[in-house]
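lol forgot to send this yesterday, sorry. struct tokens for the thing we talked abt
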């Protein structure tokens, strides 16, 4: 059971560095049973409306020459400068490069739906609160467990 949701809204007037950043609406942390925290969920705007993206890490592989880890988008090795094969990442079912892996995620659809509804309901409440004068956002970075 989700016992706490913390939302950090992204300022829509903030200058974004990439087009994908423009889709980012908020960051979120959830607490489960007052005992377990999952941080860095993202609320993303898609053509179907907002959805919750799980925390993820960038995938890497090793340079064939020096064996240093490099992000899959790297064109050159960070250590030896070798030009890396641009098509070295695994593909998903739609043929797109897999560049990130989830760190935490729901195991089944029912859990995913509960998590998504709870987080998006909290997101909508936070948006409404942000419209009020004197709005002070929740300190997202404070420890969630006392």
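and heres what i got for the seq, position by position
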């Amino acid at each position: 059971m989700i016992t706490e949701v913390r939302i950090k809204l992204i300022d829509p007037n903030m200058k974004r560095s990439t087009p994908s950043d423009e889709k980012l609406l908020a960051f979120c942390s959830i607490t489960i049973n007052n005992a377990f925290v999952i941080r860095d969920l993202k609320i993303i705007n898609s053509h179907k409306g907002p959805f919750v993206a799980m925390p993820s890490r960038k995938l890497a592989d090793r340079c064939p020459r020096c064996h240093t880890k490099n992000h899959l988008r790297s064109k050159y090795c960070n250590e030896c400068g070798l030009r890396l094969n641009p098509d070295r990442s695994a593909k998903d079912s739609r043929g797109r490069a897999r560049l990130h892996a989830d760190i935490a995620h729901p195991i089944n659809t029912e859990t995913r739906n509960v998590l998504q509804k709870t987080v998006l309901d909290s997101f909508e409440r936070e948006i409404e609160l942000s419209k009020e004068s004197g709005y002070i956002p929740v300190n997202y970075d404070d420890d969630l467990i006392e």
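The domain at 1-55+103-137 is CATH 3.30.1120.40 (Arylsulfatase, C-terminal domain). anyway ping me if u want another try
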